[in-house]
Structures are given as C-alpha cells and as structure tokens.
# Entry
Amino acid sequence: MLELAALSITPRGGLPLFAPLTLAIPPGEVCTLMGPSGIGKSTLLDAIGGHLSPDFTLTGDIRLNGQSLLPLPAESRRVGLMFQEALLFPHLSVGDNLAFGLDPAVKPRAARRAAIEAALADAGLAGFYSRDPATLSGGQRARAALMRALLAKPRALLLDEPFSRLDASLRADIRRFTFDHARAEAIPTLLVTHDASDAMATGGPVHHLA
Amino acid sequence: MSRAGRGLRGVVLVTTLAGFALPILAGLGLTAAAAFGYLPAIGARTVSTQAFSQLFAQPGLAESLRLTLLTGLASTLLSLIGACALLAHAPRVTRLLPPLLATPHAALALGLAFLLSPSGWIARLLAPLAGWDTPPPLATVNDPLGLALTLGLVAKELPFLLLMLTAAQNRLPVRKYLTLGAALGHSAASVWLKVILPQLYPLIRLPVFIVLAYAMSVVDMALILGPGQPPPLAVALTRWFTDPDPAMILPASAGALLLVALIAAAIAAWLLAERGLARLGLLWLRRGQRNRHLSLAPAALPAAVLIGAGLFALLLLALWAFAFRWSFPDLLPQSLTLRGWMRGQWAAPALTTLALALATTTLSLLLAIAWLEGEDRGHLPRARWATALLLAPLLLPQIGFLFGLNTLFLRLNLAPLPAVIWAQMLFVFPYVLLTLSDPWRALDPRQIRAAAALGAGPLRRLLRIKLPLLAAPLLSAAALGIAVSTAQFLPTLFMGAGRVPTLTTEAVALASGADRRAAAISGLLLAALPLLAYALALSLPPLIFRHRRDMKAHSDA
# Structure
C-alpha cells in the first residue's frame, strides 16, 4: 500500500504547490493524478521516488507498506519510475538494460539470463537481448522500459505521462500492457497524466490536484 | 544543498585546497617575500624595497615592459579580430583548427621559425626573385619589435578564440539574426558587428583574458621567436631566476610582482576599452545605417592566411625532422634520412613527456570526476571561490608564483619528478575540469533517476551510467590534459631544476642551437603527442559504441 499523508511540497521562498494531499493506493490499483500544467505533478512523483531537488521542502509523510520512505535515498525505496520517454540507457544493449534493473539476488548468471529472456518474451521482444535500444520502435522501447522497471521488483510504480508520446493505436496497447502487469504483480501504481482517456483506462480512482 | 556525498566533497575540498590553493598562495607569498628582500635561503632577511630598485636599474627593463605590453595586447586583439572575422566570413575554417589547437606553443614556434627565419621557407621562395644565394641579413625572427612573436602568438591563440566563439555561437540564433537583419536591409557584416558580436563577446571574455595573460607571460615561444636583447619581461625574469648569481632572485621576484601588476593593468585597460567600444557601437547602431558595402573579408583573409601558415609550419617541422641535406635556397630537402632519429636522443625526453602527461592527466581526471560527482550528489552549483581557484593558475603569470612554489617544494624535500607532476597539475586540472563540466551537467538527469529507481546506488550510477555516457567528453578532456601537460615549459624548468628534460624543454633549448634536425625532431614529437591523443579521443568512442546509435549524440556532444 502506497500512502501519502497530508503531503505538501513548497519551493524555496514560495508557496506550497498544491493543497495537502492524502491518498492511499492498495496493491494492484492504478490511481490517477490530474491537474493543470505547473501544479507540481512531476515534482510530487520526484518526492515519492526520492529525487526531490533540495530547492523544495516537503511536509507530511510518504509511506510504503507502513514504512516511511522519507529517510530513504532513492535507490533504497524500490519505487519504479517511467517517464514520457523510455530512457533506455543508450550505451547498453536492450538485454543489458534489463540486467541493470534485475534484482541482484537473482543468481547465478544462467538464472539472470533466463529471467531477462523471459521478460523480453513477455514484452514481445524475444531475441532482442543484444539489440541496440536505438533500433527499437516507440512501443518496443516502452515495453522494454517497463520490463526493466519490473525486474527491479518495485514495491510501487510511478508513471509520469508515459503514454503521451505514443500514437493513438499504440497507446491503448501499451497502457493495457502496463496496467495489466502492475495489477498482476500487485504493485500500487500512481499515474500522472493530462489525458482523460488514460485516467479512464486505469479503472482506478482519479484525483485532481488543486 | 544536500547532505549526500559530504565525505566525497570533503576529500575533494581538502585535496584542492592542499594541492592547489595553498601552493599557489604560498608560491605568490614566497615570491612576494623575496621581492621585498626576505629570502633566508640566500641569507636575505632584511625587509626592504631594494629589490625593486635593483629591478628598475636593470638595463633594458623599460624596453622589456614595452615589448610585453605591445606583443600581449596586439596579439590578443589581432587574434580576436581574426577569429571574429573568420567566424562570420569563413566558418568552415574551423575544420582546419584541430592540429593548431593541439600543438604546443614551442612546437608551433619552432615550425614558424623554419618558415619565417632569414634561411626559412619564405626567404627560399623569394630568393630567385630577390637574387639571394645566401640567407638575407634580415631580422625576420627575434626581431627587436617582437613582430615574429606577435605573429606566432596570433597563429596559436586565434584558433583557440575561434573555437570558443564557435561554441558560444551555438547558444545564439545566428541564422535567424542574419535573416532578420537582411530583411531589414542590413549587410551580413552589419548584423555581425551590431547584433551578433555584442552578444557573443561577453561569452568569451574570460578566454580572451586568459589569452591576454598568457601572451604577456609566455616564455617558450618568446625564447624561440621573440627578441633577445632585451627580451619580453617574462623571459628576462626567467634568465634572472636561473642566473648563477642567486642574488638576482630578489630583483627577479620584484619583476614577477611587476608582471602580475602589468597584466592586471592590461586587463583593466581592456575592460575600459570594451566599454568605450560598446558605447561607440551603440551610437553606430542608432544611426540606422545598413552598411551594405561593409565586409569582414579584409580581416578574414589575413587570418585564414595565418592559419594556413601555421599548418604549413607544422609540415616544415616534419620535413626538417627527416631532412638530410637542405641547403639555401632549395624549397625541398635534397634527400631524406632517419639519421637524426637513429641517434635516439629524443627517446628519453619523449618518454618523460609521455609519463608526465599520463600521470597529470590521470590524476586530474580522477579529481575532476570526484569534484563533479560531489557537486552532483550535493545538488550544488559551483561556488564562486571554486571558480576563482580554477581560474587563478590560468590568469596569473606562471613566473609570478613558480619560483615561490619551487622554494616551497624544496622545503618539502620533494624529488624533481613529483614536483613537476604537481606543478603541471596546477594547469592541467583546471582545463580538464572546465572542459568536463558542461557535458557533465548536460547529462539527462532522468537517466540517473531511472538508474536510482532501479536500485542503483551513487557509485553504481557513476560507474555504470554516467561515466560510460560521458566516454567521449572524458576522452576529449584527457586529450586536452595531455596537450596542456606536454606544452608546459616553465613548471618543468623550475621544478625539474634541469633534471627532468621533456620535449618542450629540449625543443626550446635546441631552437637556438645549430642542429635544426634535432630541434625539428623534438618539435615534431611535441606536436605529434597531443595530436595522437586527440585522434584517439575522437576515434575511440565511435569504435567502442559502434553498435549503439544513440551514443553518437553523446560522442558529438
């Protein structure tokens, strides 16, 4: 369960970005946050993921499975993140991108390779281990990025308008693919979007930041 | 400011303070103390201004000061005008710059001497017309007015300023300005002078001052191309510092302070002139003239010719290094030989140069990475004091603090080789860090966040994501580090106490000798080493990442 308790974010010397926010996302639920540009939706995701710039102060609490995330650095929070772009690391092959995300507890080497191959097959990318990420289509990149995030066994998933750059036909596919995986793995997921159709597709609650 | 990375920042802070700030301050302080008569090592313990009286009594001092000011200001101004004209009129020339940018001053000076001297290639070309059978009795290098030195400095600094201008230009919508200006009836030259340059100049003001400070304190190029009796002040100071009579150290130290003051005065005068020019430019613009017949070609042409001459000088260096017989007035050697190379006198200085370059560059890169990573982890912008610390060795004349630094290193009982490495790093590290800073900051922070979200801690993010993504800028910074280290003359001369001969010290020493081939071999190797480093830096990333298409953008960065 991902919980935000009276969470408020204030830029240095400024006013709070939005009214204190309280919400709870149970495992497998995809909750949507909507709101006008500049209100701080992405900043909120930064705060949850542990990437908040020191130019902001935060009040309230962020809890995951009952534990406060605030004292933890980003890498210890196990909160997965997806952006508008897939942001596959351009110097690594598709498979090595997934290997970067794969939980180090998965051993030995053969088991790691098998886990990655299975994830690639799941994403319709079987045989793509050695491919250059630059040669993938937009949809393939989005699926590879999701697999990379899931292999890290996240306890929560943050989606920062990850479908906004995809064309309409692909968008519905990738959206379904992402939400199905989040539900199947019981990951509480927070989606930030401008698009009402994204919000409707989640089948979950929709919050408006104000 | 974040608490993250405090330990790393602490280590970097202590290292830079102990390794850079303190030695420079101590160097300046000990030189200043000697200037005021306090140098216990030679028994001088009475604080007085006698050293200054001695300095002002030196024959030819006024002429040395005049030469320093004139060659420094003229070469900087001509380099700036030439670079601006080329950028506006012939930007393709930038493709020819890499060899000149990479070549150390001493090597280019040697090549230019082979071009300009009375027995040089230009005299050979003119010989049939002028009827010369022997080299003409003209002072075309080492001339008393310092014209050859000015020309040499322009040949080296114009490419540097053009590179800086090209980088700065990318931040402005130059094409749109030109289109807009043309639509308003202005000539391209009018748009350049009234609209583009006033915006570009502030972006390269600092490199201009670095060039000015360097030109006023250069020693190696001045020894090869400049006048000897009297020489520019920095050369005179070098002679006094290395005079067999240790008492000369006192007036030399006073002269070092005088040079610092002279450079500060020149920069102040330059700033004043800038303001005056800016006002005049505004008046010109307000008159609304379109200046349709104005062209920058008259400045671009000589600048392009000088760049061509610089490149040709490097070719001459290569020819002399393999020439067997090459009598005046032949345009080409009668025969080529490897005899000079077989003697192998170049091997030890070449190896020492390479070892120094690798050591200083590796240490500088490691420190620069630690510095930038510390800034990253603390979410810190660069502090003003840090920028000042980085720029100090580039704006201060080397001779202003190297003697004091040498005194300090002697007290620390430092062996010559580590002392040279330390002294060279004062100049290598700032260039490496400044070159690496922009690409480092241009890294997409979301890549790093994505890595952190996947559970990668700071060290793994650095080693697996940042450094590979920055492979091309890291290699470029390393190549620059090698070029800067290779070019160092005074730090090697002072700290090495003559026991650390490098290609630069050899090239300068051999330049005044009779054996042109030996000098050419040193000069050619001196030019080749940084060029090779740049060639590797440019060719390795595409090779390593040949199967990663998106890394091309990172390589081009």
